[in-house]
Amino acid sequence: MKKIFTLITVMLVAMSAMAQDLKSTDYHDQLLITINGETMPAEQAVITISEEAEEGKYTIKLNQFSFMGMLIGDVTMNGVQGDDDSEGFTNYATVNKDDEPITLTATITNGDPAGIMGLLGGKIDVTVKKGSRSKDGKLYAMITLVVPGVGNVDAVFGDNNFDGSSINGVSSDDDKVAAIYALNGARVSTMTRGVNILKMQSGKTIKVFNR
Question: How many Cβ atoms sit within 10 Å of the Cβ of residue 167?
């Protein structure tokens, strides 16, 4: 019996040590929300990414997520695939074993039980799109949340510019800039100094820094 208790103690200590080794990182950046093709003004947001015990799996939490002035709460996505590449990026996506996109059911906490969180039953379907990635303390994430009665809510966190350049390479023959917005959401005719939000003809939005 004493050996059994000793073994259990050793296992608990090992599990505790493993949990302490798992990394968790908070990323602070702008979040751009698009609903039914209409882009909302960018807001400051925080996303927390934590390693899970299973190798290559991550938990992504969108802290205090809100849109159109309505708070949903903390949206936590478990089991998101994360793979490291040769360039030092960790690439995230909700995919199955065949690397095909799937939808996960995320949990909602720290919201208003009488508000949207309660109406959704504390759950919401989400997809983390391929192309989401992090490196050197910076995160770019594309997340789609399915909100009943509203439709798809596309959330783009940060920008995909990891090399420090500005607008170079934003448009191509296949996808050109359709509109330019200042950071406060106001439409402008040309790029202004600082952060600009570009809406492409494909519907994709890109945030770039113009020096």
Answer: 16
**Sequence letter at residue 190:** T
Whole-number Å distance between alpha carbons of 141 and 151: 19
Closest CA relative to residue 42, chosen from 30, 60, 53, 26: 30
**Can you say how many angstroms the Cα of residue 146 is from the centroid of all Cα atoms in its chain?**
14
DSSP assignment, residue 42? P
Residues of the chain with pLDDT under 70: 1-21, 164-175, 209-211
Predicted TM-score (pTM) of this structure: 0.71
Distance CA 82, CA 49 (A): 10
Q: Tell the residue number behind the tokens 């890109």, with chain if given.
A: 206
DSSP 124-159: EEEEE-TTEEEETTEEEEEEEEEETTTEEEEEEES-
- Tens-digit pLDDT profile for residues 135-166: 999 999 999 999 888 889 999 998 888 875 43
The CB density around residue 184, as the number of other CB atoms within 10 Å, is 9
- Distances in Å between the Cα of 97 and the Cα atoms of 101, 126, 135 are 10, 18, 24
